[in-house]
C-alpha cells in the first residue's frame, strides 16, 4: 500500500512538471526562469529516485514541497493557460497528499510553506480582469486545501483564502464562477466548524478513555507497522474524499445554474401580491458590472482598532480562533452600509446578502461547541446582534428576510444569553415594522411569517410572557404582539399608500393565523399541567425542577425568569450581562406523585403578583408623566418605590420609561423632599476627570431642563458644587 502510494505521488509530481514544461508559451524568453526551474526540478527528482532505498522504506518518496518553486513561478506567469495548468497541478498534488507544506518557508522561517502556497494561489486573482478559467482553478485549489485532512491551515491564511473566494463571487463576470465561489465558501465554513466540533469531541473522548486505555506495555514492531499502515489508509481516504468533494461541489453548481437559467426563461411575471423569493442572489447579475473592489469590503481586512487582534479572548485551539475570526469578519461585512439606490448588482448589496447567508449557514450547522463557548456567545452579542439591528430595518426585503431568519435561529439556540437583545429586536424591528404606515407589504409579510414561526412553539410563547411581561422593568412583548396582531386581523393596521385590497386581506388572514397559533400553543402548554380536582387529589401536583431534568441548549427555559426587585433597590437591568436567569419558576408543571401542592401554588401566585406589580408600575409611570409628585407617591404607596430620596433618585437614573420633562420638573421643585431627591440624584453622578461641557451634557442627558429660571438655578448650583467636588485637581 505504501509503495503504491509513493509511486503514484512521484509519478504525478513528475507529470505535473512535464505538463507545465510542455506549454508552448514557455518557449518564449520572458519565461526562461520558469523553464529552467522546471528542468532543474525534474533532474533533481530523477537523481533522488535513483538513490538506493533502505530496508525500512522500500520505496523512495519524493516530497513535492521541495519542488514548489516551479509551480509558484507558473502561477505568477501572466499567461492564463500556464497559470491554469499550475493551479490545477497544485490542487491535484494537495488532493493526492504529495504536497502538504508543513515545513517552514525557506524564504520566511516564521511561516510555513502552506501559507506561501495559499498566498501564491490567492495572488492569481487580480480583480475583474482575471481570466474565468483562472478563477475556477483558484476556487478548486482553495477548497481542496481547506477541506483536505492532510493540510493544516490557521490564522490569517484562512481569512486570506476566504477573502479570495469572497472577492471572486463579487467580481467575477461568469455566473458559474459566482455560484461556485458561494458554494465553496459554504463548504469551507461548514468543514471549518465541523473540524472544531470534532476536535473538542475527540479531546473529550481521549480524556474519558485515557484511564481505561492506558497500558505500560511498549508497542511491538508489529503494532508500529499496523499503526503506520492504518495512518496511510486514512490519509488515502482523506485524499479521495477531498477530490470527490471538489468535483461534487462543481457538478452541483453547474447543475443548479442550468436549472436556474431554464427556470428563468420559462417563468412568467410573478404575482405582485406575493412576496418575491429573495434566495437566488445571482439571478440578476450581469456581465456589465465592472466596478472595482474596495479593500475595506473584503473579509479579514484589519481595521485600525482591530488589527490582527481577537479582543483578548482565550481560545481552546487555533482552529477555534479561526472559526471566531471568520464569524467576526462576516458580521462586520454584513454591517457595512449600502447606497441609497439599491442596485442588486452592486458589490455592497451583494456582499451584505452573501455575508448574511453565510452567517445563517453557520448558525444552522453550528454544533454544541459553537452554541456553548463563551467566545462565540460574546461574538453573537457584540457583533451579530448589532448587525441584525441594522439590517432588520433595511429597505431591501431580501436583507430583512435573512436578518429575520438569523434572529429566529438565535432565538432558538441562544435565547438564554440574549434576553436584552431579544427585547430590542422585538420592540425596534418586529413591532416597529408592523406599526409603521410607511412599511411595505413585503416587509410586514416577512415579519408576520417570522412571528408565525415563533407562535407555533408553545414554549416560546410561554418563555416570552414569563421573561418579559412578568419582568418589572422590561417591555411587554407578549402584550404588544397580541395587540398588534389583533389590529392586523381586524384590518385596523396602517397600510402603505398603493396597497391593494388583496394584500390587505392576506395580512389580515396571516395575523389571524398567528393569533390562532398562539391560542393553540397556550392550550397545548396548559393541557399537560391541568389537574381536574374532581378526579384527582390535590396532592398529585408536583414541580419538575431544573436540577431533575437538564435543559439542553436552545430548549425551553420557562424557569429562567428574572427576580423582580422593588423600586430602585433592585437592579433588574443587570441581566444584560447574564441573559435569562434561573430561580423563579422551576421547569414545567407536571403530574406526579407526592407532595408539592404548596410549592406549585406559591410559584403561580408569585408570577401573578409580579404581573400585578408591573401593571401598577406602569400606572405609576403614566401618572408621573402628567403629575410627577402624585406619580412618585403612587409608586411608594404600592410598595414599588422606597421612601428615601436616594430610592427616588436611583429610579430616575435607572428607568428610561419615565418622561424626561417630568423628571426635570420634579427635580426643580422647591419643597424640601424634592430638593433632597435632586441632591441625591446629582450626587449619584461621577464627573471625575471630565471637562465642564462633557459633564454638563452627561447631566442633561438624563432629563429635560424645566422652564422656570428658579428651578434651573437650583439644579445648576448643585451641579457646580458636585463638579468641583469630583474635580478638585482641575478647579
TrEMBL record:
<protein>
    <submittedName>
        <fullName>Brefeldin A-inhibited guanine nucleotide-exchange protein 2</fullName>
    </submittedName>
</protein>
<dbReference type="GO" id="GO:0032012">
    <property type="term" value="P:regulation of ARF protein signal transduction"/>
</dbReference>
<feature type="compositionally biased region" description="Basic and acidic residues">
    <location>
        <begin position="226"/>
        <end position="236"/>
    </location>
</feature>
<dbReference type="Pfam" id="PF12783">
    <property type="entry name" value="Sec7-like_HUS"/>
</dbReference>
<feature type="compositionally biased region" description="Basic and acidic residues">
    <location>
        <begin position="256"/>
        <end position="279"/>
    </location>
</feature>
<dbReference type="InterPro" id="IPR032691">
    <property type="entry name" value="Mon2/Sec7/BIG1-like_HUS"/>
</dbReference>
<dbReference type="InterPro" id="IPR000904">
    <property type="entry name" value="Sec7_dom"/>
</dbReference>
<keyword id="KW-0813">Transport</keyword>
<dbReference type="InterPro" id="IPR023394">
    <property type="entry name" value="Sec7_C_sf"/>
</dbReference>
<dbReference type="GO" id="GO:0005085">
    <property type="term" value="F:guanyl-nucleotide exchange factor activity"/>
</dbReference>
<feature type="compositionally biased region" description="Polar residues">
    <location>
        <begin position="211"/>
        <end position="225"/>
    </location>
</feature>
<keyword id="KW-0653">Protein transport</keyword>
<dbReference type="InterPro" id="IPR016024">
    <property type="entry name" value="ARM-type_fold"/>
</dbReference>
<feature type="region of interest" description="Disordered">
    <location>
        <begin position="206"/>
        <end position="236"/>
    </location>
</feature>
<dbReference type="GO" id="GO:0015031">
    <property type="term" value="P:protein transport"/>
</dbReference>
<dbReference type="InterPro" id="IPR032629">
    <property type="entry name" value="DCB_dom"/>
</dbReference>
<feature type="domain" description="SEC7">
    <location>
        <begin position="606"/>
        <end position="727"/>
    </location>
</feature>
<feature type="region of interest" description="Disordered">
    <location>
        <begin position="256"/>
        <end position="314"/>
    </location>
</feature>
<feature type="compositionally biased region" description="Polar residues">
    <location>
        <begin position="293"/>
        <end position="307"/>
    </location>
</feature>
<feature type="region of interest" description="Disordered">
    <location>
        <begin position="550"/>
        <end position="569"/>
    </location>
</feature>
<dbReference type="InterPro" id="IPR035999">
    <property type="entry name" value="Sec7_dom_sf"/>
</dbReference>
<dbReference type="Pfam" id="PF01369">
    <property type="entry name" value="Sec7"/>
</dbReference>
<dbReference type="Pfam" id="PF16213">
    <property type="entry name" value="DCB"/>
</dbReference>
